[in-house]
């Protein structure tokens, strides 16, 4: 039975409202990215305690810390960023999250990413080494304009780093917005390393984000293949249906519900159970 989660800060900045809507939709997990308009890594410990109590009161597990680790330029200070990862590890421990989402650094506009490949691999390995000994996986998301925004470069990262605490999360919409048909061009390449799935779809022609199954992200083909492969991970709604930016997106309760309905309809059509 597949587990559903979601970036509940796309519902509201208010954590009580986030929890209420997730409960109404029957979603039992949250990918925690922030509350009260504060990024997850900038919450103070007393605020984290409040988050943990609210999530527990609503019977919500934390499926992942939706961190911005790796969303800096490849020339930005990496030592300071390692300390930022220390905070993410602390948050994951406090909220009982088994996963921290990370990225592989923004490329300077106009540069060939290959020029920065070795530094990307060095930094990604450094993040994994920093996280060693913690009971958490780092999962790399294929964000636009970072080194790992193509299927081939995602594979390069995971194989070149070669550490067991680094895996991949799959964002179909981001691949589409980079000009790829995700399942056709990336699934077989990346499937051995997929640990986590973001649910977001987009149109190839315009890049517009749309509900799952309404774009060119080949969401139906991907869930069929995952079921056939025995995938047993998390599917996290990240709708971006009202707005989207480099550090996140927003949908509101109504459009988040629309995104949930679209994806669960696909699951029902395919006869897939979920919780």
Question: What this model shows, in words?
Answer:
Helix 3 packs parallel to helix 4 and helix 5 runs parallel beside helix 7. Helices cover 40% and strands 20% of the residues. Strand 7, helix 5 and strand 8 form a beta-alpha-beta unit. It contains nine helices and 14 strands. The longest helix has 18 residues. The chain is of the alpha/beta class. An eight-stranded parallel sheet has the order 1-12-9-8-7-6-5-2. A two-stranded antiparallel ribbon has the order 3-4.
Q: Kindly, what is the distance between the CA atoms of the first and last residues, rounded to a whole number of angstroms? A: 7 Å
Across the major sheet, the strand order is: 1-12-9-8-7-6-5-2
Overall mean pLDDT score?
97
Unreliable stretches, pLDDT < 50, 5 or more residues? Answer: none
Shape: globular
**Structure summary, number of beta strands:** 14
The number of helical segments is 9
A few lines on this structure:
By secondary structure, the chain is an alpha/beta fold. It has helices at 15-25, 45-57, 78-95, 117-131, 151-161, 172-177, 182-190, 219-228, 252-269; strands spanning 3-6, 29-32, 34-35, 38-39, 61-69, 99-102, 137-141, 166-171, 194-199, 201-202, 209-210, 234-237, 243-245, 248-250.
């Amino acid at each position: 039975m597949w587990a559903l989660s979601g970036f509940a800060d796309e519902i509201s900045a208010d954590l009580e409202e986030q929890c209420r809507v997730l409960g109404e939709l029957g979603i039992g997990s949250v990918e925690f990215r922030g509350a009260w308009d504060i990024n997850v890594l900038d919450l103070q410990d007393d605020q984290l305690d409040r988050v943990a109590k609210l999530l527990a009161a609503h019977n919500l597990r934390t499926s992942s810390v939706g961190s911005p680790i790796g969303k800096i330029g490849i020339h930005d200070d990496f030592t300071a960023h390692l300390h930022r990862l220390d905070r993410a590890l602390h948050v994951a421990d406090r909220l009982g999250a088994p996963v921290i989402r990370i990225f592989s650094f923004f490329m300077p506009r106009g540069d060939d990413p290959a020029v920065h490949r070795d530094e990307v691999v060095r930094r990604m390995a450094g993040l994994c080494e920093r996280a060693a000994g913690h009971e958490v996986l780092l999962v790399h998301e294929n964000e636009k304009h970072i080194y790992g925004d193509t299927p081939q470069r995602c594979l390069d990262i995971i194989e070149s780093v070669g550490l067991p605490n680094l895996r991949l999360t799959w964002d179909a919409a981001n691949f589409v917005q980079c000009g790829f048909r995700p399942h056709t061009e990336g699934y077989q390449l990346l499937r051995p390393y997929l640990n986590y799935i973001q649910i977001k779809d987009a149109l190839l022609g315009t890049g517009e984000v749309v509900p799952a199954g309404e774009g060119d992200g080949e969401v139906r083909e991907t869930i069929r293949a995952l079921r056939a492969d025995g995938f047993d991970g998390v599917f996290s709604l990240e709708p971006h249906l009202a707005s989207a930016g480099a550090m996140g997106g927003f949908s509101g309760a109504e459009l988040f519900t629309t995104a949930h309905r679209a994806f669960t309809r696909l699951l029902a059509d395919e006869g897939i159970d979920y919780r």
